[in-house]
Amino acid sequence: MGCSPLKPSDSYSADPCYNYTVLANPWRATSYTYSSNCDTSVSWRGWYRLFINGVSAHIPDTCVAYSRCGTGITLWIRGGHPTVEDGVVTRDVCGHWNKYCCYFGSYPIKVKACPGNYYVYELATGKCVENLLGLIENSTVQVLALNDVTTFLDVVLNATEKFLDSSSADPKKLVSHGNRLLKASEKLVSMLVKQTNTSEYVNFTLDTVEGQVFMVGPKVTLDKIPRLDTTDSSVDIDLIGIAKNNNETKSAAVAFMSYNTMENLLKPDFFNTSNDTIKTMMSTVISATLPKTTNTKLTKPVNFTLRHIREFDPSGSLFCVYWNISEWIVDGCSVLKTTSSYTVCSCHHLSTFALIMQTSRRESESDSLLELLNLVCVIVGLAFFSLALLTFALCQWSPGVNNVARINICISLLLAHLLFLLTQRFLSLIRPLQVLCAVISGLLHFLFLSGFVWMFIEAVLLFICVKNLSQISSKKREVLSSGFLCVIGYLVALVVVCVSVGLVPEGYGSEDCWIKKEKGFIWSFLGPVCVILALNIIFFIRIVITLNSTLKNLNAEVSQMKQTKIMAFKTLAQFVVLGCSWILVFFSNGSKVLEILFLVLNSQQGTFIFLIYCVLNNEVRQQYRNFFRCLCCGRKQQ
For the GAIN-B domain, which residue ranges apply (predicted)? Predict the structure, then answer.
Protein backbone atom coordinates (compact mmCIF):
# COMPACT_ATOMS: atom_id res chain seq x y z
CA MET A 1 0.00 0.00 0.00
CA GLY A 2 1.16 3.51 -0.78
CA CYS A 3 1.94 6.21 1.77
CA SER A 4 0.61 9.38 0.13
CA PRO A 5 -1.74 11.83 1.88
CA LEU A 6 -5.53 11.90 1.69
CA LYS A 7 -7.58 14.11 -0.63
CA PRO A 8 -11.23 14.69 0.40
CA SER A 9 -14.31 14.67 -1.81
CA ASP A 10 -15.97 17.89 -2.92
CA SER A 11 -19.40 16.63 -4.06
CA TYR A 12 -21.67 13.61 -3.82
CA SER A 13 -24.26 11.77 -5.92
CA ALA A 14 -26.58 8.81 -5.57
CA ASP A 15 -24.17 6.31 -7.14
CA PRO A 16 -20.79 6.19 -5.38
CA CYS A 17 -19.21 4.57 -8.45
CA TYR A 18 -19.72 7.83 -10.34
CA ASN A 19 -18.76 10.12 -7.51
CA TYR A 20 -15.49 9.46 -5.75
CA THR A 21 -12.31 11.30 -4.94
CA VAL A 22 -8.94 10.03 -6.08
CA LEU A 23 -7.32 8.90 -2.87
CA ALA A 24 -3.99 7.57 -1.84
CA ASN A 25 -3.91 5.23 1.12
CA PRO A 26 -6.53 6.40 3.62
CA TRP A 27 -5.49 3.70 6.06
CA ARG A 28 -1.93 4.75 6.48
CA ALA A 29 -0.91 4.95 10.14
CA THR A 30 2.35 6.22 11.59
CA SER A 31 3.00 3.81 14.43
CA TYR A 32 -0.02 2.19 16.08
CA THR A 33 -2.61 4.79 15.10
CA TYR A 34 -4.71 6.45 12.44
CA SER A 35 -2.61 9.61 12.56
CA SER A 36 -2.99 10.43 8.85
CA ASN A 37 -6.60 9.44 8.25
CA CYS A 38 -7.69 11.25 11.43
CA ASP A 39 -6.51 14.61 10.12
CA THR A 40 -8.97 17.06 11.69
CA SER A 41 -8.34 19.63 8.96
CA VAL A 42 -10.03 17.30 6.45
CA SER A 43 -13.79 16.82 6.24
CA TRP A 44 -14.21 13.13 5.40
CA ARG A 45 -17.68 12.32 4.28
CA GLY A 46 -18.35 10.44 1.06
CA TRP A 47 -17.02 7.71 -1.18
CA TYR A 48 -13.32 7.38 -2.04
CA ARG A 49 -11.33 5.42 -4.60
CA LEU A 50 -7.72 4.36 -4.00
CA PHE A 51 -4.87 5.07 -6.41
CA ILE A 52 -1.16 4.30 -5.95
CA ASN A 53 1.16 6.15 -8.34
CA GLY A 54 -1.75 6.65 -10.72
CA VAL A 55 -2.70 2.98 -10.76
CA SER A 56 -6.06 1.82 -9.36
CA ALA A 57 -5.66 -0.15 -6.12
CA HIS A 58 -7.75 -1.45 -3.25
CA ILE A 59 -7.51 -1.92 0.50
CA PRO A 60 -6.09 -5.39 1.33
CA ASP A 61 -8.64 -8.01 2.28
CA THR A 62 -6.12 -10.41 3.83
CA CYS A 63 -3.84 -9.96 6.82
CA VAL A 64 -0.97 -7.55 6.04
CA ALA A 65 2.51 -8.06 7.47
CA TYR A 66 3.29 -6.09 10.63
CA SER A 67 5.03 -2.70 10.10
CA ARG A 68 4.35 -2.71 6.35
CA CYS A 69 4.82 0.72 4.71
CA GLY A 70 6.41 2.10 7.88
CA THR A 71 3.28 1.65 10.00
CA GLY A 72 3.12 0.23 13.50
CA ILE A 73 -0.28 -1.35 12.81
CA THR A 74 -1.35 -2.47 9.33
CA LEU A 75 -5.05 -2.39 8.51
CA TRP A 76 -7.13 -4.62 6.25
CA ILE A 77 -10.82 -5.38 5.70
CA ARG A 78 -12.22 -8.73 6.78
CA GLY A 79 -14.75 -10.59 4.61
CA GLY A 80 -13.32 -9.89 1.15
CA HIS A 81 -14.43 -7.43 -1.52
CA PRO A 82 -17.90 -7.66 -3.06
CA THR A 83 -18.85 -8.17 -6.70
CA VAL A 84 -20.80 -5.62 -8.75
CA GLU A 85 -23.95 -7.69 -8.22
CA ASP A 86 -23.52 -7.57 -4.42
CA GLY A 87 -23.98 -3.81 -4.37
CA VAL A 88 -22.95 -1.96 -1.22
CA VAL A 89 -21.67 -4.27 1.54
CA THR A 90 -20.40 -3.70 5.07
CA ARG A 91 -16.97 -4.87 6.13
CA ASP A 92 -15.03 -4.85 9.42
CA VAL A 93 -11.57 -3.25 9.56
CA CYS A 94 -8.86 -5.18 11.40
CA GLY A 95 -5.51 -4.00 12.70
CA HIS A 96 -2.54 -6.41 12.73
CA TRP A 97 -0.44 -6.03 15.85
CA ASN A 98 1.47 -8.23 18.29
CA LYS A 99 1.21 -11.27 15.97
CA TYR A 100 -2.59 -11.13 15.85
CA CYS A 101 -4.13 -10.24 12.49
CA CYS A 102 -7.25 -8.74 14.07
CA TYR A 103 -5.85 -7.54 17.39
CA PHE A 104 -7.71 -4.24 16.88
CA GLY A 105 -11.14 -3.76 15.38
CA SER A 106 -13.10 -0.69 14.32
CA TYR A 107 -16.56 0.39 13.33
CA PRO A 108 -17.47 -1.19 9.94
CA ILE A 109 -17.10 0.67 6.65
CA LYS A 110 -19.11 0.33 3.44
CA VAL A 111 -17.56 -1.03 0.24
CA LYS A 112 -18.90 -1.24 -3.32
CA ALA A 113 -17.53 -2.86 -6.49
CA CYS A 114 -17.83 -0.69 -9.59
CA PRO A 115 -17.92 -1.56 -13.30
CA GLY A 116 -14.36 -1.33 -14.55
CA ASN A 117 -12.91 -3.62 -11.88
CA TYR A 118 -12.29 -1.12 -9.05
CA TYR A 119 -13.74 -0.45 -5.59
CA VAL A 120 -14.88 2.60 -3.62
CA TYR A 121 -15.06 3.03 0.15
CA GLU A 122 -17.28 5.22 2.33
CA LEU A 123 -15.38 7.18 4.98
CA ALA A 124 -16.42 9.78 7.57
CA THR A 125 -14.45 11.95 10.04
CA GLY A 126 -16.68 11.27 13.02
CA LYS A 127 -16.34 7.52 12.61
CA CYS A 128 -12.58 7.90 12.52
CA VAL A 129 -12.41 9.55 15.94
CA GLU A 130 -15.03 7.18 17.34
CA ASN A 131 -13.01 4.24 16.07
CA LEU A 132 -9.88 5.57 17.68
CA LEU A 133 -11.55 6.21 21.04
CA GLY A 134 -13.03 2.71 20.87
CA LEU A 135 -9.59 1.21 20.22
CA ILE A 136 -8.14 3.04 23.22
CA GLU A 137 -11.01 2.09 25.54
CA ASN A 138 -10.84 -1.59 24.57
CA SER A 139 -7.07 -1.86 24.42
CA THR A 140 -5.31 -4.25 26.80
CA VAL A 141 -1.84 -2.85 26.07
CA GLN A 142 0.11 -2.19 29.28
CA VAL A 143 3.16 -0.30 28.05
CA LEU A 144 3.47 1.94 25.00
CA ALA A 145 6.25 4.13 23.61
CA LEU A 146 6.08 7.88 24.26
CA ASN A 147 5.79 8.67 20.54
CA ASP A 148 2.78 6.38 20.20
CA VAL A 149 1.05 7.92 23.23
CA THR A 150 1.58 11.50 22.04
CA THR A 151 0.37 10.57 18.55
CA PHE A 152 -2.85 9.17 19.95
CA LEU A 153 -3.36 12.17 22.24
CA ASP A 154 -2.73 14.62 19.43
CA VAL A 155 -5.33 12.96 17.22
CA VAL A 156 -8.19 12.61 19.72
CA LEU A 157 -7.73 16.03 21.37
CA ASN A 158 -7.37 17.88 18.08
CA ALA A 159 -10.72 16.46 17.03
CA THR A 160 -12.46 18.53 19.75
CA GLU A 161 -13.03 21.51 17.46
CA LYS A 162 -14.76 19.36 14.84
CA PHE A 163 -16.86 17.78 17.55
CA LEU A 164 -17.93 21.19 18.86
CA ASP A 165 -19.03 22.21 15.37
CA SER A 166 -21.16 19.10 14.98
CA SER A 167 -22.60 18.91 18.49
CA SER A 168 -24.38 22.29 18.36
CA ALA A 169 -23.20 22.86 21.94
CA ASP A 170 -25.59 20.20 23.32
CA PRO A 171 -24.58 19.98 27.03
CA LYS A 172 -25.16 16.21 27.19
CA LYS A 173 -22.96 15.62 24.15
CA LEU A 174 -20.27 17.92 25.51
CA VAL A 175 -20.21 16.09 28.83
CA SER A 176 -20.21 12.65 27.21
CA HIS A 177 -17.42 13.49 24.79
CA GLY A 178 -15.42 15.26 27.50
CA ASN A 179 -15.63 12.20 29.75
CA ARG A 180 -14.49 9.92 26.95
CA LEU A 181 -11.52 12.17 26.18
CA LEU A 182 -10.50 12.31 29.84
CA LYS A 183 -10.68 8.51 30.22
CA ALA A 184 -8.85 7.91 26.94
CA SER A 185 -6.13 10.43 27.84
CA GLU A 186 -5.61 9.00 31.31
CA LYS A 187 -5.49 5.45 29.95
CA LEU A 188 -2.95 6.41 27.29
CA VAL A 189 -0.70 8.17 29.78
CA SER A 190 -0.92 5.17 32.12
CA MET A 191 0.77 3.17 29.33
CA LEU A 192 3.91 5.27 29.94
CA VAL A 193 4.25 3.81 33.42
CA LYS A 194 6.67 0.92 33.76
CA GLN A 195 8.43 -0.85 36.61
CA THR A 196 11.49 0.89 38.05
CA ASN A 197 13.68 0.24 41.08
CA THR A 198 14.58 3.86 41.78
CA SER A 199 12.73 6.65 39.99
CA GLU A 200 11.97 7.65 36.42
CA TYR A 201 10.47 10.71 34.78
CA VAL A 202 8.62 11.18 31.45
CA ASN A 203 7.18 14.39 30.05
CA PHE A 204 5.58 15.59 26.80
CA THR A 205 4.21 18.82 25.35
CA LEU A 206 1.58 19.12 22.61
CA ASP A 207 -0.56 22.02 21.42
CA THR A 208 -3.58 20.63 23.25
CA VAL A 209 -2.04 19.04 26.35
CA GLU A 210 1.08 18.98 28.50
CA GLY A 211 1.88 16.03 30.71
CA GLN A 212 4.37 14.56 33.16
CA VAL A 213 4.67 11.07 34.63
CA PHE A 214 6.81 10.34 37.67
CA MET A 215 7.50 6.78 38.86
CA VAL A 216 9.20 5.61 42.03
CA GLY A 217 10.32 2.10 42.98
CA PRO A 218 11.36 0.26 46.16
CA LYS A 219 14.97 1.55 45.97
CA VAL A 220 14.13 5.20 45.44
CA THR A 221 16.77 7.49 46.97
CA LEU A 222 14.72 10.69 46.95
CA ASP A 223 13.43 12.16 50.21
CA LYS A 224 10.89 14.35 48.46
CA ILE A 225 9.23 14.15 45.05
CA PRO A 226 10.11 17.12 42.84
CA ARG A 227 7.22 19.40 41.93
CA LEU A 228 5.59 18.38 38.64
CA ASP A 229 5.20 21.44 36.42
CA THR A 230 3.46 22.44 33.22
CA THR A 231 3.29 25.93 31.71
CA ASP A 232 0.16 26.95 33.64
CA SER A 233 0.06 24.59 36.62
CA SER A 234 2.01 22.43 39.05
CA VAL A 235 1.35 19.75 41.67
CA ASP A 236 2.97 18.72 44.95
CA ILE A 237 2.22 15.14 45.99
CA ASP A 238 3.71 12.75 48.56
CA LEU A 239 4.36 9.94 46.09
CA ILE A 240 7.03 8.34 48.31
CA GLY A 241 4.53 7.98 51.16
CA ILE A 242 2.00 6.45 48.76
CA ALA A 243 4.64 4.00 47.49
CA LYS A 244 5.47 2.89 51.05
CA ASN A 245 1.78 2.06 51.60
CA ASN A 246 1.90 -0.37 48.66
CA ASN A 247 3.22 -3.27 50.66
CA GLU A 248 3.78 -5.67 47.78
CA THR A 249 5.58 -3.52 45.21
CA LYS A 250 6.68 -0.48 47.24
CA SER A 251 6.21 1.49 44.06
CA ALA A 252 3.84 4.16 42.78
CA ALA A 253 3.38 6.52 39.84
CA VAL A 254 1.62 9.85 39.31
CA ALA A 255 0.41 11.17 35.95
CA PHE A 256 -0.21 14.91 35.72
CA MET A 257 -1.76 16.58 32.65
CA SER A 258 -2.82 20.12 31.77
CA TYR A 259 -5.40 20.43 28.95
CA ASN A 260 -5.41 23.63 26.91
CA THR A 261 -8.77 23.09 25.18
CA MET A 262 -10.79 20.96 27.60
CA GLU A 263 -12.74 23.95 28.95
CA ASN A 264 -14.58 24.04 25.60
CA LEU A 265 -16.16 20.72 26.58
CA LEU A 266 -16.23 20.81 30.38
CA LYS A 267 -17.52 24.36 30.51
CA PRO A 268 -17.53 26.47 33.69
CA ASP A 269 -21.32 26.70 33.29
CA PHE A 270 -21.43 23.09 34.52
CA PHE A 271 -20.54 24.48 37.96
CA ASN A 272 -24.08 24.33 39.34
CA THR A 273 -24.57 27.29 41.65
CA SER A 274 -27.07 30.14 41.79
CA ASN A 275 -28.24 31.42 38.43
CA ASP A 276 -27.47 35.06 39.18
CA THR A 277 -23.71 34.52 38.82
CA ILE A 278 -21.36 34.40 35.87
CA LYS A 279 -18.83 31.56 35.84
CA THR A 280 -15.38 32.03 34.30
CA MET A 281 -12.69 29.39 33.87
CA MET A 282 -9.59 30.92 35.45
CA SER A 283 -7.15 28.07 34.80
CA THR A 284 -6.48 25.26 32.40
CA VAL A 285 -8.23 21.97 33.19
CA ILE A 286 -5.75 19.63 34.89
CA SER A 287 -5.84 15.94 35.68
CA ALA A 288 -3.88 13.97 38.29
CA THR A 289 -4.07 10.17 38.66
CA LEU A 290 -2.11 7.32 40.22
CA PRO A 291 -1.86 4.78 37.36
CA LYS A 292 -0.81 1.21 38.04
CA THR A 293 -0.70 1.94 41.78
CA THR A 294 -2.44 -0.65 43.98
CA ASN A 295 -3.16 1.49 47.04
CA THR A 296 -4.15 4.96 45.86
CA LYS A 297 -5.00 6.38 49.29
CA LEU A 298 -3.31 9.76 49.81
CA THR A 299 -1.05 10.17 52.82
CA LYS A 300 -1.57 13.95 52.87
CA PRO A 301 -3.54 16.52 50.82
CA VAL A 302 -2.29 17.32 47.33
CA ASN A 303 -1.57 20.96 46.50
CA PHE A 304 -2.11 22.33 42.99
CA THR A 305 -0.82 25.73 41.86
CA LEU A 306 -2.94 27.08 39.02
CA ARG A 307 -1.90 30.16 37.05
CA HIS A 308 -4.73 32.51 36.11
CA ILE A 309 -5.25 32.42 32.35
CA ARG A 310 -7.59 35.44 32.52
CA GLU A 311 -7.45 38.74 34.36
CA PHE A 312 -8.29 38.41 38.04
CA ASP A 313 -11.37 40.27 39.30
CA PRO A 314 -10.95 41.10 43.03
CA SER A 315 -14.72 41.29 43.43
CA GLY A 316 -15.21 37.70 42.22
CA SER A 317 -15.20 34.47 44.24
CA LEU A 318 -12.68 31.73 43.37
CA PHE A 319 -13.44 28.03 43.74
CA CYS A 320 -11.17 25.01 43.41
CA VAL A 321 -13.41 22.42 41.76
CA TYR A 322 -13.15 18.89 40.44
CA TRP A 323 -15.09 17.12 37.69
CA ASN A 324 -17.66 14.62 38.94
CA ILE A 325 -18.95 12.87 35.78
CA SER A 326 -21.44 15.57 34.83
CA GLU A 327 -20.62 18.72 36.80
CA TRP A 328 -17.94 20.71 38.61
CA ILE A 329 -18.17 20.46 42.41
CA VAL A 330 -16.03 21.71 45.32
CA ASP A 331 -16.24 18.74 47.73
CA GLY A 332 -12.82 17.89 49.11
CA CYS A 333 -11.05 20.93 47.61
CA SER A 334 -10.30 24.36 49.07
CA VAL A 335 -8.36 27.53 48.25
CA LEU A 336 -5.12 27.79 50.25
CA LYS A 337 -3.73 30.99 48.76
CA THR A 338 -4.60 33.34 45.93
CA THR A 339 -2.92 36.32 44.27
CA SER A 340 -3.72 38.32 41.17
CA SER A 341 -1.74 35.84 39.03
CA TYR A 342 -2.17 32.38 40.60
CA THR A 343 -4.13 30.32 43.14
CA VAL A 344 -3.04 27.35 45.27
CA CYS A 345 -5.68 24.63 45.75
CA SER A 346 -5.57 21.80 48.31
CA CYS A 347 -7.50 18.58 47.60
CA HIS A 348 -7.97 15.33 49.53
CA HIS A 349 -8.33 13.20 46.40
CA LEU A 350 -7.14 13.03 42.80
CA SER A 351 -9.33 13.71 39.81
CA THR A 352 -9.77 16.35 37.11
CA PHE A 353 -9.52 19.87 38.54
CA ALA A 354 -9.97 23.51 37.53
CA LEU A 355 -10.27 26.98 39.00
CA ILE A 356 -13.60 28.75 38.44
CA MET A 357 -14.48 32.33 39.33
CA GLN A 358 -18.00 33.51 40.10
CA THR A 359 -19.01 37.13 39.61
CA SER A 360 -22.38 38.69 40.22
CA ARG A 361 -24.57 39.09 37.15
CA ARG A 362 -25.86 42.29 38.67
CA GLU A 363 -22.34 43.66 38.65
CA SER A 364 -22.14 42.73 34.99
CA GLU A 365 -25.31 44.69 34.32
CA SER A 366 -23.93 47.69 36.19
CA ASP A 367 -20.72 47.32 34.18
CA SER A 368 -22.76 47.55 30.98
CA LEU A 369 -24.33 50.78 32.26
CA LEU A 370 -20.84 52.01 33.13
CA GLU A 371 -19.70 51.19 29.58
CA LEU A 372 -22.63 53.16 28.16
CA LEU A 373 -21.81 56.13 30.40
CA ASN A 374 -18.16 55.87 29.36
CA LEU A 375 -19.16 55.83 25.68
CA VAL A 376 -21.29 58.97 26.02
CA CYS A 377 -18.72 60.84 28.13
CA VAL A 378 -15.79 59.99 25.85
CA ILE A 379 -17.72 61.10 22.75
CA VAL A 380 -18.60 64.41 24.44
CA GLY A 381 -14.98 64.83 25.53
CA LEU A 382 -13.71 64.11 21.99
CA ALA A 383 -16.10 66.74 20.60
CA PHE A 384 -14.75 69.41 22.98
CA PHE A 385 -11.14 68.34 22.27
CA SER A 386 -11.87 69.00 18.60
CA LEU A 387 -13.48 72.39 19.36
CA ALA A 388 -10.51 73.38 21.52
CA LEU A 389 -8.04 72.43 18.76
CA LEU A 390 -10.03 74.42 16.19
CA THR A 391 -10.07 77.41 18.55
CA PHE A 392 -6.33 77.25 19.19
CA ALA A 393 -5.64 76.93 15.45
CA LEU A 394 -8.09 79.50 14.01
CA CYS A 395 -8.45 82.21 16.65
CA GLN A 396 -6.00 85.08 17.06
CA TRP A 397 -4.20 85.10 20.37
CA SER A 398 -2.16 87.74 22.18
CA PRO A 399 1.55 87.68 21.25
CA GLY A 400 2.60 86.58 24.71
CA VAL A 401 0.27 83.56 24.86
CA ASN A 402 1.98 80.18 24.36
CA ASN A 403 -0.55 77.49 23.38
CA VAL A 404 1.97 74.82 22.36
CA ALA A 405 1.46 72.71 25.48
CA ARG A 406 -2.32 73.04 25.36
CA ILE A 407 -2.48 72.09 21.68
CA ASN A 408 -0.34 69.01 22.24
CA ILE A 409 -2.32 68.00 25.33
CA CYS A 410 -5.42 68.07 23.14
CA ILE A 411 -3.74 66.11 20.35
CA SER A 412 -2.33 63.40 22.66
CA LEU A 413 -5.49 62.90 24.69
CA LEU A 414 -7.78 63.15 21.66
CA LEU A 415 -5.88 60.34 19.91
CA ALA A 416 -5.62 58.29 23.13
CA HIS A 417 -9.34 58.50 23.97
CA LEU A 418 -10.34 57.90 20.34
CA LEU A 419 -8.06 54.84 20.00
CA PHE A 420 -9.25 53.44 23.34
CA LEU A 421 -12.90 53.97 22.37
CA LEU A 422 -12.48 52.22 19.00
CA THR A 423 -10.52 49.38 20.62
CA GLN A 424 -13.26 48.69 23.14
CA ARG A 425 -15.96 48.85 20.46
CA PHE A 426 -14.17 46.23 18.32
CA LEU A 427 -12.48 44.31 21.15
CA SER A 428 -13.94 40.95 20.10
CA LEU A 429 -12.26 41.30 16.69
CA ILE A 430 -8.96 42.73 17.96
CA ARG A 431 -8.35 40.46 20.97
CA PRO A 432 -7.59 37.27 18.94
CA LEU A 433 -4.89 39.23 17.04
CA GLN A 434 -2.33 39.25 19.85
CA VAL A 435 0.28 41.31 17.99
CA LEU A 436 -2.24 44.01 17.04
CA CYS A 437 -3.59 44.05 20.60
CA ALA A 438 -0.07 44.48 22.01
CA VAL A 439 0.74 47.28 19.53
CA ILE A 440 -2.47 49.12 20.46
CA SER A 441 -1.72 48.86 24.19
CA GLY A 442 1.82 50.18 23.58
CA LEU A 443 0.46 53.08 21.52
CA LEU A 444 -2.11 53.89 24.24
CA HIS A 445 0.70 53.80 26.80
CA PHE A 446 2.66 56.33 24.73
CA LEU A 447 -0.28 58.68 24.05
CA PHE A 448 -1.55 58.84 27.64
CA LEU A 449 1.99 59.30 28.98
CA SER A 450 2.72 62.07 26.47
CA GLY A 451 -0.51 63.74 27.60
CA PHE A 452 0.78 63.69 31.18
CA VAL A 453 4.19 65.03 30.15
CA TRP A 454 2.47 67.90 28.31
CA MET A 455 0.35 68.49 31.42
CA PHE A 456 3.59 68.84 33.41
CA ILE A 457 5.03 71.22 30.82
CA GLU A 458 1.85 73.31 31.01
CA ALA A 459 2.22 73.41 34.81
CA VAL A 460 5.79 74.68 34.43
CA LEU A 461 4.68 77.35 31.95
CA LEU A 462 1.82 78.38 34.23
CA PHE A 463 4.21 78.64 37.20
CA ILE A 464 6.55 80.86 35.21
CA CYS A 465 3.61 82.94 34.05
CA VAL A 466 2.29 83.46 37.61
CA LYS A 467 5.74 84.11 39.00
CA ASN A 468 6.30 86.91 36.51
CA LEU A 469 2.66 88.04 36.62
CA SER A 470 2.97 88.44 32.89
CA GLN A 471 3.37 86.27 29.81
CA ILE A 472 6.69 84.55 29.31
CA SER A 473 9.34 87.07 28.34
CA SER A 474 11.10 86.93 24.99
CA LYS A 475 14.22 85.57 26.65
CA LYS A 476 12.21 82.80 28.20
CA ARG A 477 10.51 82.02 24.94
CA GLU A 478 13.89 81.49 23.31
CA VAL A 479 14.79 78.92 25.98
CA LEU A 480 11.35 77.25 25.92
CA SER A 481 10.82 77.28 22.16
CA SER A 482 8.04 75.25 20.55
CA GLY A 483 10.53 72.80 19.04
CA PHE A 484 12.25 72.22 22.35
CA LEU A 485 8.93 71.67 24.11
CA CYS A 486 7.82 69.17 21.45
CA VAL A 487 11.01 67.17 21.85
CA ILE A 488 10.54 67.01 25.62
CA GLY A 489 6.79 66.37 25.40
CA TYR A 490 7.02 63.28 23.20
CA LEU A 491 10.57 62.01 23.76
CA VAL A 492 10.09 61.37 27.48
CA ALA A 493 6.99 59.25 26.86
CA LEU A 494 8.70 57.41 23.99
CA VAL A 495 11.73 56.57 26.16
CA VAL A 496 9.50 55.16 28.93
CA VAL A 497 7.60 52.97 26.45
CA CYS A 498 10.78 51.75 24.72
CA VAL A 499 12.38 50.83 28.05
CA SER A 500 9.20 49.02 29.09
CA VAL A 501 9.14 47.04 25.82
CA GLY A 502 12.80 46.16 26.22
CA LEU A 503 12.44 44.96 29.80
CA VAL A 504 9.06 43.19 29.61
CA PRO A 505 7.98 42.77 25.95
CA GLU A 506 5.13 40.44 26.95
CA GLY A 507 3.68 43.09 29.27
CA TYR A 508 1.46 44.56 26.56
CA GLY A 509 -1.82 43.11 25.27
CA SER A 510 -4.16 42.29 28.16
CA GLU A 511 -7.69 41.06 27.51
CA ASP A 512 -8.75 44.73 27.21
CA CYS A 513 -5.72 45.49 24.97
CA TRP A 514 -4.10 47.52 27.71
CA ILE A 515 -1.05 47.05 29.93
CA LYS A 516 -0.99 43.73 31.78
CA LYS A 517 -1.07 43.81 35.58
CA GLU A 518 1.10 40.72 36.02
CA LYS A 519 4.55 41.18 37.61
CA GLY A 520 3.71 44.81 38.44
CA PHE A 521 4.15 45.90 34.83
CA ILE A 522 1.25 48.35 35.22
CA TRP A 523 3.71 50.56 37.15
CA SER A 524 5.45 51.35 33.88
CA PHE A 525 2.44 53.65 33.44
CA LEU A 526 1.44 54.41 37.03
CA GLY A 527 5.03 55.18 38.10
CA PRO A 528 5.55 58.14 35.72
CA VAL A 529 1.96 59.25 36.42
CA CYS A 530 2.66 59.36 40.17
CA VAL A 531 5.83 61.38 39.62
CA ILE A 532 4.06 63.90 37.37
CA LEU A 533 1.09 64.19 39.75
CA ALA A 534 3.44 64.80 42.68
CA LEU A 535 5.33 67.47 40.76
CA ASN A 536 2.07 69.10 39.67
CA ILE A 537 0.90 69.24 43.29
CA ILE A 538 4.19 70.90 44.24
CA PHE A 539 3.79 73.43 41.44
CA PHE A 540 0.18 74.06 42.46
CA ILE A 541 1.23 74.85 46.04
CA ARG A 542 4.02 77.11 44.80
CA ILE A 543 1.60 78.90 42.46
CA VAL A 544 -0.82 79.60 45.33
CA ILE A 545 2.01 80.88 47.55
CA THR A 546 3.39 83.02 44.74
CA LEU A 547 -0.04 84.46 43.98
CA ASN A 548 -0.66 85.28 47.63
CA SER A 549 2.62 87.14 48.02
CA THR A 550 2.64 88.84 44.64
CA LEU A 551 -0.93 90.15 44.54
CA LYS A 552 -0.26 92.23 47.66
CA ASN A 553 2.10 94.36 45.61
CA LEU A 554 -0.28 94.88 42.65
CA ASN A 555 -1.22 98.35 41.47
CA ALA A 556 -4.07 99.78 43.56
CA GLU A 557 -6.05 100.42 40.37
CA VAL A 558 -6.42 96.68 39.91
CA SER A 559 -9.15 95.05 41.98
CA GLN A 560 -7.06 92.78 44.17
CA MET A 561 -9.99 90.64 45.30
CA LYS A 562 -11.37 90.11 41.83
CA GLN A 563 -7.92 89.36 40.37
CA THR A 564 -7.20 86.90 43.15
CA LYS A 565 -10.47 85.02 42.59
CA ILE A 566 -9.92 84.76 38.82
CA MET A 567 -6.33 83.57 39.14
CA ALA A 568 -7.18 81.11 41.91
CA PHE A 569 -10.07 79.68 39.90
CA LYS A 570 -7.97 79.24 36.76
CA THR A 571 -5.15 77.71 38.77
CA LEU A 572 -7.47 75.22 40.44
CA ALA A 573 -9.20 74.38 37.16
CA GLN A 574 -5.79 74.05 35.49
CA PHE A 575 -4.73 71.55 38.14
CA VAL A 576 -7.84 69.45 37.40
CA VAL A 577 -6.92 69.54 33.71
CA LEU A 578 -3.36 68.50 34.57
CA GLY A 579 -4.59 65.15 35.85
CA CYS A 580 -5.93 65.61 39.37
CA SER A 581 -8.67 63.12 38.44
CA TRP A 582 -6.08 60.31 38.21
CA ILE A 583 -5.54 60.54 41.97
CA LEU A 584 -8.94 58.84 42.30
CA VAL A 585 -7.47 55.68 40.69
CA PHE A 586 -5.39 55.01 43.81
CA PHE A 587 -8.37 55.31 46.16
CA SER A 588 -11.21 53.73 44.15
CA ASN A 589 -10.59 50.17 45.49
CA GLY A 590 -13.63 48.83 43.63
CA SER A 591 -15.88 51.76 44.62
CA LYS A 592 -18.43 52.35 41.84
CA VAL A 593 -18.93 55.98 42.92
CA LEU A 594 -15.23 56.80 42.61
CA GLU A 595 -15.00 54.87 39.34
CA ILE A 596 -17.86 56.90 37.86
CA LEU A 597 -16.32 60.13 39.16
CA PHE A 598 -12.97 59.26 37.61
CA LEU A 599 -14.64 58.27 34.35
CA VAL A 600 -16.47 61.60 34.09
CA LEU A 601 -13.51 63.78 35.09
CA ASN A 602 -11.00 61.93 32.92
CA SER A 603 -13.21 61.82 29.83
CA GLN A 604 -14.08 65.53 30.15
CA GLN A 605 -10.54 66.87 30.03
CA GLY A 606 -11.30 68.23 26.58
CA THR A 607 -14.39 69.98 27.99
CA PHE A 608 -12.32 71.55 30.81
CA ILE A 609 -9.66 72.77 28.40
CA PHE A 610 -12.28 74.30 26.11
CA LEU A 611 -14.05 76.03 29.01
CA ILE A 612 -10.92 77.37 30.70
CA TYR A 613 -8.92 78.56 27.70
CA CYS A 614 -11.65 79.33 25.19
CA VAL A 615 -15.01 80.13 26.82
CA LEU A 616 -13.43 82.05 29.76
CA ASN A 617 -11.16 84.07 27.46
CA ASN A 618 -12.68 87.46 26.54
CA GLU A 619 -10.73 87.72 23.28
CA VAL A 620 -11.81 84.27 22.15
CA ARG A 621 -15.43 84.93 23.09
CA GLN A 622 -15.38 88.14 21.05
CA GLN A 623 -13.98 86.28 18.02
CA TYR A 624 -16.74 83.67 18.41
CA ARG A 625 -19.34 86.46 18.45
CA ASN A 626 -17.88 87.98 15.28
CA PHE A 627 -17.86 84.58 13.60
CA PHE A 628 -21.52 83.87 14.40
CA ARG A 629 -22.52 87.37 13.33
CA CYS A 630 -20.83 86.90 9.96
CA LEU A 631 -22.45 83.48 9.65
CA CYS A 632 -25.91 84.89 10.39
CA CYS A 633 -25.43 87.88 8.08
CA GLY A 634 -24.35 85.61 5.25
CA ARG A 635 -27.51 83.52 5.64
CA LYS A 636 -29.74 86.65 5.65
CA GLN A 637 -28.13 87.95 2.43
CA GLN A 638 -28.84 84.62 0.76
Answer: 212-363
